[in-house]
Specification:
Helix content is about 15%, strand content about 35%. The protein is an alpha+beta fold. It has one domain (about 20-185): Beta Barrel (Lipocalin). A hairpin with a 4-residue loop joins strand 2 (about 70-75) and strand 3. It is globular.
């Protein structure tokens, strides 16, 4: 009987450790029910930030030709999302891409948007918090907001726990995203 109980407990822990965790608002340390983006903020929420270039002081031969294109969207409510999409020769319909991405996760609660999360700003510095389901912890991307640009200097780091410390705002790597306005973007509400 005792041996069966021990085997059962081990089995429960084994299944629990293999199951996927789905994060809710309260799991995010950056979630703030009363968040309001300041009118003076350089961060824009009426469009998307599309990856333009990648630079590294360590390897100036980084291949910026990419099979996938990425973009960031920020909401006035403190929510953020990075969306990966196929590279196309034509100008993408960013509004449709965002709606399709959000609807995909709305239809199936077991599918997140992959890089959904929350952000915090301090002057022109930004930290983006998103969940890493595989590691069951949060990643933090550190960067700067400039006129019509988002510059990520430390992407998807497990370091720093989202603290605004200078040592996480490095100058040895830069992903530069340029702002592209998108009509009626405020009508698209995130579902997390």
């Amino acid at each position: 009987m005792k041996r069966d109980l021990i085997a059962y407990i081990i089995l429960v822990f084994a299944f629990d450790s293999c199951s996927q965790k789905f994060y809710t608002k309260s799991d995010y340390s950056f979630y703030n029910e009363n968040f309001e983006l300041s009118e003076e903020s350089l961060l824009k929420t009426n469009g998307v930030y599309v990856l333009e270039s990648i630079w590294s002081s360590v390897d100036n031969k980084i291949n910026i030709e990419k099979e996938k294109e990425s973009l960031y969207i920020f909401h006035k409510t403190g929510q953020s999302n990075m969306i990966m999409m196929s590279n196309t020769d034509s100008v993408p319909d960013y509004r449709k891409i965002i709606i399709d991405n959000y609807n995909r996760s709305k239809k199936n609660k077991n599918i997140g948007t992959l890089f959904q999360g929350y952000y915090q700003l301090k002057a022109n510095k930004i930290i983006i918090e998103n969940a890493n389901s595989a590691l069951r912890r949060f990643n933090y991307s550190y960067g700067y907001v400039e006129n019509d640009k988002l510059i990520i200097v430390k992407p998807n780091s497990l370091q720093g726990d989202g603290k605004f410390e200078d040592k996480y705002f490095l100058q040895t790597y830069k992903e530069t995203y340029v702002f592209v306005p998108v009509e009626n973007l405020d009508s698209i509400l995130p579902n997390w």
